[in-house]
Write a structure and sequence with these properties.
This protein is mainly α and 124 residues long. It contains five helices and no strands. It comes from Streptomyces lunaelactis.
Length: 124
């Protein structure tokens, strides 16, 4: 199960690093164009904040355990990313973007599995 949790954490880290970096590095208009209309409802600062949270969560899923410094941060990062996905699912749900809600639910489930495993029976 430890290997499975590493794989899930790595997959989540890759997704959130890419997604968060795009939100951090692109202007709002480009985010709207590439990520969808949801960004119209958010200020540029809020979009950058979401991107930063995603990047920090991605780093927190891997780095603490990889360097064995504060590995207890891994499930905290997973929990934080799960919370971001709840917010994303609510936002997309209100806009009727069911395809995006499905993606959010899958990422939420993966983050919850990582958090459960690293807080519980497979902690570092």
């Amino acid at each position: 199960m430890n290997i499975t949790l590493w794989i899930l954490a790595s997959l989540l880290a890759a997704v959130f690093l890419a997604s968060g970096s795009a939100k951090l590095l692109q202007p709002k208009a480009k985010v709207i164009e590439t990520a969808g209309g949801w960004a119209e409802s958010f200020s540029p600062g809020a979009i950058k904040t979401i991107g930063l949270l995603e990047v920090l969560g991605a780093v927190g899923l891997i780095l603490p355990a990889a360097v064995d410094i504060a590995p207890d941060l891994v499930p905290v990062a997973a929990t934080g990313l799960a919370a971001v996905m709840v917010g994303a699912a609510v936002t997309h749900g209100r806009r009727g973007e069911t395809k995006n809600v499905a993606v959010n639910v899958v990422l939420l489930a993966l983050a919850v599995v990582v958090a459960w495993g690293r807080f519980g029976p497979y902690a570092f």
